Amino acid sequence: MISQGRLIIDPQNRWMKYEPMFSNLISRAKELDPENPRPVFLYAQNILYTPEQFGGGKDKALPILKEAEEKFKNFEPASELHPNWGEDVLKSTLENIEGE
User: Fold this and answer.
1) Which residue in 3, 47, 50 sits closest to 25, CA to CA?
2) Which residues are CB-neighbours of 43 under 8 A, at least 6 positions away?
3) Contact predicate 97/69, CB 8 Å
4) Using an 8 Å Cβ cutoff, are 90 and 65 in contact?
5) CA distance 8 to 95
6) Of 1, 15, 18, 47, which cross-links 61 as Cys (Cβ 3.0–4.6 Å)?
């Protein structure tokens, strides 16, 4: 999330530095816990807010958002201390996309 936040500040000038960093961290998170919906959701958000001419947009992001939605249905945090965020934002994002 930190690398994505730094990228968003100035995408044109920071893309070359922070996009590969973001992608590598997301890939690593997926490897560590393939059932965790949050890396899938963060990746989908990245695709959603990338302009279509650069391979992004809602049509490309929607299947990935749906994958995250399925993972959230089956996800249970290991304890009260483990992360449990993102599902509400995902639902809101899907409502906005599907409502357009």
Assistant:
1) 3
2) 26, 64
3) no
4) yes
5) 23
6) 47
Rounded to whole angstroms, how far apart are CA atoms 54 and 69? 25
- Of the candidates 69, 83, 81, the one whose C-alpha atom is nearest the C-alpha of residue 33 is 83
Residues 76-97, mean pLDDT to the nearest whole number: 93
Q: Which two structure tokens, joined as six digits, stand for 59?
A: 């049509």
Grade residue 1 by pLDDT with cuts at 50, 70 and 90: confident
Between CA 19 and CA 70, with CA 49 as vertex, the angle to 5 degrees is 95
Boundaries of every domain in the chain: 2-98
Banded pLDDT at 98 (limits 50, 70, 90)? confident
